Amino acid sequence: MATDHHGAPRYTADEALTRLREGNARFLRGEARFPTVQKEVLAELVRGQEPYVTILGCSDSRVPPELVFDAGFGELFVVRVAGNVLGPSILGTLQYAGAHLHTPLFVVLGHEGCGAVQAALAAKFEGARHKARIEVLLENILPSLEGLDGTAPPDVLLRSAVEANVRGTIRTLLETPEAKARAAEGVMKLVGAVYELETGRVRFLE
Ligand SMILES: [Zn+2]
C-alpha cells in the first residue's frame, strides 16, 4: 500500500455507498460478477490502487467483504479484526486510507452472531473471564454496551449489542480530528452497517 492519489476521487461518498448496495444486491440474487480475476485487471492494478471505500469489518470467516459486496480487486480497502474494534494499528490503517488513498466512504461493518460481541456481553453481564489479550480486545467493545438490558432474551441482546458496537465505533471515529475536518468539507462519509448471516443482506444503519 504505497500509492498516493492526489486527484479527485473517482467516486463521491454517495456513489461509493450505492456501489456497495448494488454489489450486495447482486450477491443476494446470485449474480455476482467476480468469479475469477483477469490478468488485465491484475496488470492494471500494479500501477496503483484507488479503492472507493474503506471497510472495518470482523475477522469472522462468514463475512468476507469482497464477496458480500461483489467487489473486485482494488475496490475495497479492508481492515478485519475480531469485533470490528479500533486500536492503535487499526486507527493508523484508517488514517492511511483517509490521508493517502482518499477513500470517500468509510464503513464499519458488524455482523449478526458476532463471537467477540458475545464474549463482551458475557464479560459484562455474567462476569465471564477471558484470556488476557482477548480481554484487551473486549475492552474496546464494552463501553458501547452501556445501557443495554442484560435481562433481554439472548438473541435480542446480541442483536442490539452488535448494532451498539458499530455505532460506538462510528462515534469514536467521528471524534478524530481528521474525520471532523473531512466531514466538514463534505467529502467523506462514515456509515455503520450490519451483515445478516442468514440472508446475506447488509443493513446500512441510519
Ligand atoms: Zn464478529
Question: Can you offer a commentary on this structure?
Answer:
The protein has helices at residues 13-29, 39-46, 65-68, 88-101, 115-126, 132-139, 154-174, 177-185; strands spanning 53-57, 76-80, 105-111, 189-195, 202-204. By secondary structure, the chain is α/β, with parallel strands linked by helices. The chain has one domain (13-29, 49-199): Carbonic anhydrase (Beta-carbonic Anhydrase, Chain A). The chain has a five-stranded mixed sheet with strand order 2-1-3-4-5, sandwiched between helices. Strand 4 (189-195) and strand 5 (202-204) form a beta hairpin. Helix 5 packs across helix 6. The site of zinc ion (ZN) has 7 residues, from helix 5.
Task: Tell me the domain tally.
Answer: 1
Specify the biggest β-sheet.
5 strands, mixed
Any ligands, ions or cofactors bound here, and which? Answer: zinc ion
Q: Indicate the CATH topology.
A: Beta-carbonic Anhydrase, Chain A
Percent helix, as a range, is 40-55%
